[in-house]
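Morning run. Coffee first, then this:
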Amino acid sequence: MTDSIVVNTAILMPVFALIAWSLVIFIRMYAMRMPAMAKAEIDPQSVKHPGALKGILPTKVEASADNYNHLMEQPTIFYALCFYLALAGQVDALQVQLAWAYVALRVLHTLVQITSNNVMARFSFFSLSTIAMLVMVIREALQLMQ
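And here it is:
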């Protein structure tokens, strides 16, 4: 195994970490949502339309579902970017650090959303994570222009 292969696969660890985190939130969402629906005597079939539970279940319960949805949105671009970088052989230590920063900021975004749900704090973590990914993209774009 060459050093470049080891470095290139290092970008995949943040991908794995964010996937694992997303599954933790999936479990939390259902662990909170199902008992809340039972307590409110809601038939799952009656809420088959997305958003049908909005305003019915406590905000604290729905925060996990909202965050799970957020983890299925922008991170898909992050996953594609990391796989692209690994396959293109364009991974260096800074790209890996930026990928870990992205993951850490998304975890912080989750923790804010499922606890205090302070919108400005959440937005700050979201924005910083987006900037981390943007820097990854800009670095690769500059590399491609050389």
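The radius of gyration is 18 Å. Good start to the day.
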